[in-house]
Amino acid sequence: MNIIDMHCDTIAGIYRSEKNGEKADLYENSMRIDLKKLRKGGWLLQNFACFVFLREGISPFEEANGMIDTFEKQMALYPDIIRPVTNCAQIEENRKAGIMSAMLTLEEGGICEGSIDNLKALYGRGARMMSLTWNFKNELAWPNRVMLNEDGSRYMIPETENGLTGTGREFVEAMEEMGMIVDVSHLGDAGILDVIDMAKKPFVASHSNARAVASNPRNLTDEMLKAMGEKGCVAGLNYLPDFLRDYGPDEDKTARIDDCVRMALYMKNAGGAELVGLGSDFDGFDDGMEWKDASGVPMIIDALQKAGFTSSEIDKITHENVLRLYKEILG
Predict the structure, then answer these.
(1) Residue 202: DSSP 8-state
(2) How do residues 261-293 score in pLDDT, each as one tens digit?
(3) Which of 105, 177, 166 is nearest to 134 (CA)?
């Protein structure tokens, strides 16, 4: 297999463990991704996100650089198994050598602290994709709105009024110019539509599904899926249970393979076979999954085949769609 996964939080998890004085390693660990699991699952490329939770008392830019230090250290330990890449030629070179590839990405545009110079510095360290927001407003854009229930619990509603800021538009233009992939996962509805309107190149929603199937506002509307498909974009199938279907209050929230197949079929029909990729969000959530971890992803691929997806369509979903977009943006 040649699996490409556009989003995981594994490096952020290793970084946090190290800061807490705990031993953490990419080769083997208790998370959903490690090198042994990726090998067993048939991986070609894993995107590793540097995720920074915006909060007072930290420099998001400095924290992101600390995570990149962790990424580089882990890559240096296992060059015969996995190597960092910034373009498709390197991915192909690694593939021929039987070595997996790792691409560095950024989750939370606030990492740049509103500075394109900081963006360029992170690009210089190898980052090739960045989401414009996480769940907080930053210098670039608004995410979907976080609301409070009477009991203090939180829920989200679509942000349909506020989209990209002026700085956000400058960042999209700069990212396209320098060859960095724009990621609209976590961006509010108005912001996604802004990117659809202004983007000159394809972009991704690295870990977002279809809202018509699972109503979480982090998922994409049919309008978005159709428009993204027409622009040559890719949306990565997210395995988080709440993003796969709606659950009743007493239901066990466990991601099922059938849910993934249903979601992939809907996304294909809404945006075309060239739209769908994989974006697991592994190590970004703790909910249960029928296939446990990265080593079990071939179970989803087998289920897609049994559900009537052609070999060509499966190849597009597992790697070809992402490689096509990466080749266009990264070279």
Answers:
(1) -
(2) 999 999 999 999 999 999 999 999 999 999 999
(3) 105
User: Token pair 């208790």 is at which residue?
Assistant: 30
pTM for this one?
0.97
Spatial separation of the C-alpha atoms in residues 151 and 11, rounded to whole Å: 34
The end-to-end CA distance of the chain, in Å, is 23
Per DSSP, the three-state class of 159 is: coil
For residue 297, the SS3 value is coil
Report yes or no: 259 and 253 within 8 Å, Cβ to Cβ: no
Domains of the chain: 3-330 (3.20.20.140)
Cβ–Cβ < 8 Å for 6, 322: yes
Residues 6+ positions from 65 with CB-CB distance below 8 Å = 122, 125
Residue segments in the chain with a per-residue pLDDT below the cut of 50: none
Unique residue bearing structure tokens 């972009």:
203
Instruction: Render 71-108 in DSSP notation, one character per residue.
Output: HHHHHHH-TTTEEE-SSHHHHHHHHHTT-EEEEEEEE-
SS (H, E, C) 237-258: ECCCHHHHCCCCCCCCCEECHH
Residue count of the chain: 331
- Residue 164 backbone phi and psi in degrees, to 5: -75, 145
| Contact by Cβ (8 Å): 2, 8 | no
Check: CB of residue 28 under 8 Å from CB of residue 303: no
